[in-house]
């Protein structure tokens, strides 16, 4: 195989990889994108000291749990898409907090 063909194959692989990465690193497909970025930023600014960044990790974990619960509930009710569009997410969060306030 020639060098030109090898380079072309590597370029194609990089294109596919960057598409896959960008698909998961967008607010459209990841409702906790902002929390993930803040966690990463904290690690970079604090020389990867996980203890300092633990509040950011806890926030990200809570966010993922919340949206996984939302998707699970929507799936059980037959509502598609399972992850609400960006425009509807603030309403979902508001409804959640209103229902929690009524339980108290």
UniProtKB/TrEMBL annotation:
Task: Tell me which domain of life the UniProt entry assigns to the organism this sequence originates from.
Answer: Eukaryota
The residue ranges flagged as biased composition, category Basic residues, are 12-22
What InterPro entries has UniProt attached to this entry? COX23 (IPR051040), Cys_alpha_HP_mot_SF (IPR009069)
Q: State the protein's name.
A: Coiled-coil-helix-coiled-coil-helix domain-containing protein 7
Q: Where in the cell is it found?
A: Mitochondrion intermembrane space
> Hey, which family's this protein in?
Belongs to the CHCHD7 family.
Q: Which UniProt keywords apply?
A: Disulfide bond, Mitochondrion
Keyword Mitochondrion, does the record have it? yes
Gene Ontology terms: cellular component: mitochondrial intermembrane space
Q: Which organism is it from?
A: Cephus cinctus (Wheat stem sawfly)
Biological process annotations from GO? mitochondrial respiratory chain complex assembly
Compositionally skewed regions (Basic and acidic residues) per UniProt: 1-11
Q: State the residue spans of region: Disordered.
A: 1-26
